[in-house]
């Protein structure tokens, strides 16, 4: 629950005195890439024990001063989110399920012993930044403004315990295709490393999970693949998820399977949305487990016809090839399957306001 002071928090605005020129911004928007360019402003909100959330501010995008003893730098007390703002055909701007990101942010906060942020503040921060920096939303098909809310422990203290001060920060980055290759289907590498163990932080969106995935992801890239796929920690048998995406399998009898949320994978908002959309189509979507051996066998026999990965950054992306120490196999024709294309089109149409939003997922900003 927000304290009365937090509920009444107002954002101060210190406009960037030297925003990017129209020409600089246009050059960035013509080829945004992913995660390399940032808008003119950011949002910060501080938290301290006793006071709670205070000092909500929209100011120029800039480096932040941080004490070298800040807890985040030593024990990785950090969490983040990822969501997108889209320009609609009528030039209005929309967000997709920001309330779900706020909810997951707070679940991650709780797991990392951090304070929760009232959902209204999380969404207001996003709306304020997107409104102010809306000129940074790319127009190109498939492009959007990627929003990165995160929270760090700022207290200067080297003891291992939850910090007593935190900073919430929101930055925005114009985004194009997440995969550099831009290929219609990606190739993935089955890692010998594990991403998350039962009882660990796999279901939280915390930086530490991603730090631990860099070596496995690097191995995947070095072998010529686009992403790493992780198996479970206990048996090294059951397929969990990719470095930054959830997985779906499509079978020849029309049923669909996605790994169940057992605490070791991230509860993706795209995953949750696709399950709802597929079930509305009358399709059976099971949540369960699927082994690497079964995956290989079913892909070879033709029982498995498609596999796709999904996430905010990658949207819906077909998996065409799977490789590991035991060799590799191709899924379907190696390109995007029919259902993958269909469900991607349906999701994107809702996100971009081209299809009716019957779920109340789309939140218009302006
Ligand atoms: N799994 C991991 C490890 C991720 O980093 C992400 C991306 O956020 C996802 C799954 C997909 O989650 P979402 O659909 O909420 O973006
Ligand atoms: C996202 O899809 O938002 C992610 O966070 C994935 C990756 C960029 C970490």
TrEMBL record:
* Keyword Amino-acid biosynthesis annotated: yes
Q: In which pathway does it act?
A: Amino-acid biosynthesis; L-isoleucine biosynthesis; L-isoleucine from 2-oxobutanoate: step 4/4; Amino-acid biosynthesis; L-valine biosynthesis; L-valine from pyruvate: step 4/4; Amino-acid biosynthesis; L-leucine biosynthesis; L-leucine from 3-methyl-2-oxobutanoate: step 4/4
Give its E.C. classification number: 2.6.1.42
| Key words, A-Z | Amino-acid biosynthesis, Aminotransferase, Branched-chain amino acid biosynthesis, Pyridoxal phosphate, Transferase
InterPro entries to which the protein is assigned, alphabetical: Aminotrans_IV, Aminotrans_IV_CS, Aminotransferase-like, B_amino_transII, BCAT-like_C, BCAT-like_N, BCAT_family
Cofactor(s) recorded in Swiss-Prot or TrEMBL: pyridoxal 5'-phosphate
- Gene3D superfamilies, per database record: 3.30.470.10, D-amino Acid Aminotransferase, subunit A, domain 2
GO MF assignments: branched-chain-amino-acid transaminase activity
| Pfam name, any one | Aminotran_4
Instruction: Enumerate the CDD domains for this protein.
Output: BCAT_beta_family
Catalytic reaction annotation: L-valine + 2-oxoglutarate = 3-methyl-2-oxobutanoate + L-glutamate; L-leucine + 2-oxoglutarate = 4-methyl-2-oxopentanoate + L-glutamate; L-isoleucine + 2-oxoglutarate = (S)-3-methyl-2-oxopentanoate + L-glutamate
NCBIfam families the record matches: ilvE_II, PRK13357.1
Q: What family does the Swiss-Prot or TrEMBL record give for this protein?
A: Belongs to the class-IV pyridoxal-phosphate-dependent aminotransferase family.
Cited function: Acts on leucine, isoleucine and valine.
Q: What protein name applies here?
A: Branched-chain-amino-acid aminotransferase
């Amino acid at each position: 629950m927000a304290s009365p002071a937090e509920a009444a928090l107002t954002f101060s605005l210190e406009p960037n005195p030297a925003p990017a020129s129209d020409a600089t911004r246009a050059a960035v928007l013509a080829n945004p890439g992913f995660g390399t360019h940032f808008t003119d402003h950011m949002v910060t909100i501080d938290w301290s024990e006793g006071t709670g959330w205070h000092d909500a501010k929209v100011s120029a995008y800039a480096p932040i001063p941080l004490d070298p003893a800040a807890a985040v730098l030593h024990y990785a007390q950090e969490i983040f989110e990822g969501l997108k703002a889209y320009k609609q055909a009528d030039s209005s701007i929309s967000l997709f399920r920001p309330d779900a990101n706020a909810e997951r942010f707070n679940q991650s906060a709780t797991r990392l012993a951090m304070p929760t942020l009232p959902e209204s503040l999380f969404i207001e921060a996003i709306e304020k930044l997107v409104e102010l920096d809306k000129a940074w939303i790319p127009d190109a098909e498939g492009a959007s403004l990627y929003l990165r809310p995160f929270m760090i422990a700022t207290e200067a203290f080297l003891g291992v315990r939850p910090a007593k001060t935190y900073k919430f920060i929101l930055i925005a980055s114009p985004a194009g295709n997440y995969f550099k290759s831009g290929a219609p289907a990606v190739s993935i590498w089955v890692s010998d490393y594990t991403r998350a163990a039962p009882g660990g932080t796999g279901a939280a969106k915390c930086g530490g999970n991603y730090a631990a995935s860099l070596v496995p992801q690097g191995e995947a890239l070095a072998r010529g693949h686009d992403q790493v796929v992780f198996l479970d920690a206990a048996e090294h048998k059951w397929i969990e998820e990719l470095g930054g995406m959830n997985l779906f399998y499509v079978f020849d009898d029309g049923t669909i399977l996605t790994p169940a949320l057992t605490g070791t994978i991230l509860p993706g908002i795209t995953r949750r949305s696709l399950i709802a959309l597929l079930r509305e189509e009358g399709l059976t979507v099971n949540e369960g487990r699927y082994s690497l051996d079964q995956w290989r066998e079913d892909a070879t026999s033709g029982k498995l016809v498609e596999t796709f990965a999904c996430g905010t950054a990658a949207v819906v992306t077909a998996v065409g090839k799977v490789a590991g120490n035991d060799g590799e196999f191709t899924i379907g024709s190696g390109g995007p399957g029919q259902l993958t294309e269909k469900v991607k089109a349906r999701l994107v149409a809702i996100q971009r306001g081209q299809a009716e939003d019957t779920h109340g997922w789309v939140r218009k900003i302006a």
